[in-house]
Amino acid sequence: MAQAKSTPNMIREVNVRPERKSRMTRLWQNNKYLWLLFLPCLIYFILFRYVPMFGLIITFKDYNLFKGVWESKWVGLKYYKMFLENPDFLLLMKNTFLLGLYKLVFGFPAPIILALLLNELKNAVFKRFVQTVSYLPHFISNVIVASMAIMFLSPSGGLINNLLGVFGVGPINFMMKPEMFRGVYVLSEIWQHIGWETIIYLAALTAVDPRLYEAASIDGASRMRKLWHVTLPGISPAIVITLILNIGKVLEIGFEKVFLMQNPAIYETADIISTYVYRVGMEQGNFSYGASIDLFMGIISLVFIYGANQFSRRVSETSLW
Amino acid sequence: MKKPYSIMMTGLLSVALLAGCTSGNGNSGTNTPGTTGETNTPPASEQTELPSKTFTALLDNNATFPYTADWPIWKWLKEKTGVTLDVQTPSGKLGESLNLAIASNNLPDLMYMPNRRESNKFGQQGALVDILEYVDKMPNLSAWMEQYPEESKAALSADGKMYMFPNQGFGETNRMIWLYRQDIFEAEGLKAPATFDELYEALKKLKAKYPDTYPLSLRYGQIPDEMNTNLAVNFGVGEGAYYDFERNEWLYGPVQDNYKALVEKWKTFYDEGLIPPDFLSLQTKQWQDMMSTSQAFVTIDYISRVDFFNNAMQKDEPSYNMQFMPPPAGVPGVPQHNPYLHYMEGGLTVASTSKQIEDIMQYMDFFFSEEGRVLTSWGVEGETYEKEGDTYKFKPEFTDVTEMRKQTGLQTSGTYAWIDYNAHLSLFSEDLQNAYTEAAKYDPANMQPRPAFTEEENEVISLTGQAIKKHRDESFAKFVTGSRDLAEWDSYVAELENLGLQKLLDTYKAAYDRQQNVELKVN
Amino acid sequence: MLRKLSPFHLISTFILLFVVVVTLYPFVHMLAVSLSSDVHVMRNEVSLWPKGLNFKMYEIVLGDPKIWTAYKNTLIYTVLGTVIAMVVTSMGAYSLSRPQMAFRTPLTMLIVFTMFFSGGMIPTFLVVRSLGLVDTLWGMVLPGAVSTWNLILMRTFFSGIPRELEESGRIDGLNDIGIFLRIIVPLSKASFATIALFYAVGLWNNFIFPLLYLRSQDMFPLQVLLRNLVLAGSVSSGDVTRIGGDNQIVEESLKFATIMVSTLPILIVYPFIQKYFVKGAMIGAVKG
Fold first, then answer.
1. Global pTM?
2. C124 contacts in B (CB within 8 Å)?
3. Which H or E run includes B181?
4. What is the pLDDT of residues B469-512, one digit of tens each?
5. Are C13 and C5 in contact (CB under 8 A)?
6. What's domain B173-341+431-441's architecture?
7. Cβ atoms B323, B306 nearer than 8 A
8. With an 8 Å Cβ cutoff, are A237 and C127 in contact?
9. Mutation test of the interface with chain A: which of C12, C114, C117, choosing the one with the most A Cβ atoms within 10 A?
């Protein structure tokens, strides 16, 4: 019977074989080059990011550096409890969150606006000059920036107060007023990083098709309309992705600068989680405590970025994943 | 001092013999018996070729006198002990390099640690050797410990072991004093104030004469703990938990009545513009500028500032005269004292994984001998110093302390334990020498005890202690600037007590009692 | 087009000039202080122009023989590190940017995950050590081969390249690797330049890797040598002990001179790569 059917069947089988091929093989055929391109990256992440994650276990142990991670004593949730039961916990969380939020709300649009302004410049020399100069502060270390900021704002001879004095405004003791801290910090951040952060948007702007501008001009669009309908949509993937990433990082405020700019008079707004950890850690050099807090904050940040990404998926075409 | 020297020689030679006999496990550079004539040399009094040894060491590196293997001090130490150090310096901060070395279980033989908290922690984790176990073979250290029992006790951990070599002498450099512009005071007919009230009057007069200045200026924000300590001691209390020697108990300074007086005084200064309104955030540079340009006339800082300012300013302004000022008494009845800050917390430790522990102990013993003390303070006679009768004097090419240290490597990390501070004094200006002499007159009778804490105790201090400290600092700022009314003082005291003050004091007491009961085992 | 002085131009120019002044001033000030004599600096007399012009500080900084080794090391680490990073990152970013790549989403999620969770300094150090990379050149350039941030950004750039280009490549018989190398890379000059700059600056300024992975002094890069100098005398140097009178106060002018010496070389890279920021790089490709 097989033989009677053989010839027509064989033809049919030959046609059938590609579909019976396993899904895995098809997957491999289609993706092997892409996976190959991805391979070095994969190796990197496994080796340098995932393997060391065994270290997260020290958050459940009393880490004895000499004996090592595995030999250290197990303490369970002790350090997490220590952190959550701290009387200042809510205040620290609030300060960290608000500082990050202010930085996001004011600091995120700033480089975009600067990039757009630069983009409108016709004079190439001036454009290059402004670009190059504006990113200089990025290279100044936090230590110097904090020191400079404090000196500028000093009520006894600082530049800002001298200027205010010209307008008859009395010297303001900026660094000792809790309500001023967030503003001062965010402004110092913008000043330090705005030039550098425009670079990515300037690069994105080069990818916008100039013919779209020409078409818009022919339609009689004004500068503002071109901005709204051509430029911004053109760089929106860069904006959206950077925004999502920044939302994920909102709680991750670099400790160094805040530490240098804070003092007891402004703890109520200026003391954040990382500076608290530093002060407490100073007494003990307790890695486990610091690591537990990092883990805790990491989970919260993950929730933020997940939320931001989901929102972005619904609202736009761009998202992180 | 021949006897300890020949004992040491015998010790070294016998150890060399022993070490040479064991099959090669890391004893680099040790002579095996019979290879040279050295092991057969009788332990005589004259200087013979010492068996050379090499130890690995992690030492700190100060940018002002960066480490170099070419320093004469290394040569001199080799001549006296036969030891060469294979030195590693931190590629970042010392603390981090220590953590990494210990975590990787790849410890250098010797490690310099910045304070006892670190050495006690690592020692109790098992990484360091208990020096007391070897002290019976270290005659110099044993004698030294009898001579300086307080310093020795301070080097003990909570479990009664000694993980870091004690030190004495170099702490002098950490003294903090009141300083004032003597020329300005004299011009205004003012004399150095003996009490805070007199200080207040003097500052007011200066402010009236120079309204754009802030006569009293401190680097308060930069070194708050030190500043707090200074002020608190002026008022007869401590800045945190402190031991009251008269009442024999541990008290907390910031709730005492005298402390309230301090806050009140400070608030007055603030309100009347006698101190800069941003004293909490003032940067070192700003303060330096104020002191140099006569925008401020009185300050508290490290004793070396006398020369720091005078040397820089007198070139162009010969009348500029910054001098030691006796510490004013806060309230009547309190003695005029500066805090006891002239001690040093850092020192060398020995890794428990080292294969040459006994050799290292012998090496370190040298530093506690008179000969070692002279060598590590002054260098070599004829090369770096001359002796005039009983006085030592550096050769003229060493113009100041920094130059001296840069060129010789003396008093750099890992090169000393017991120092004759006259070595530094001899290079200071007369004004600074005078400051030291005067400062000694205002030392408190006793050093504040620095007991070592167990892990549980450390946790209390870091958590409860930090919470209390933060509230103390915040309240100080608020009271002084006026955002909180001083009438609320009692509430503030209650708030501190609610944060666990008694627990904190009990912790200190327990640690202190434990330290007092330890018998320093010598020989 | 007539050069009208529109209100927009006025405001824009004003804002940009303000930006220039505000960002340039501190740098000029630091340069001036680094070239001034210490007495004038102490007296706070220096603002924009050096007083008592002298090069003493630069002599001190540049006179240290170790600094030339450090410069050489930094250059090697930066150049090699950037090349490696660009190769790994661009390949990874491109593959992730192709919607047809299987497992793309979970892989991206796993990568983003590492931005929030890390084993910590010591476990990472232990892993690197077990790979035998401590105190080697590779220990300085491999652990930083991929920055998640840069990877995501580059992926975004690649996503923006029109599909027609990829399709035309397939028609020509190229596989994904061929498309990447022959079509995508030449068109992505701006993004390559940008991300390369980010990596280069990151590597140049990096002091964490030397701190963790280097032991021999002759392998130290510039940042290690100079950072200690600048931090000496500053509260945040992290060494809790009261170093007190032993801690010499580093002169401002010396601090600033070291900053100039360590950052000027990398600063001047950007103006050179600005030529890659040319608009309309894509059109030619699509048309042609």
1. 0.86
2. none
3. strand B176-181
4. 999 999 999 999 999 999 999 999 999 999 999 999 999 999 99
5. no
6. 3-Layer(aba) Sandwich (3.40)
7. yes
8. no
9. C117
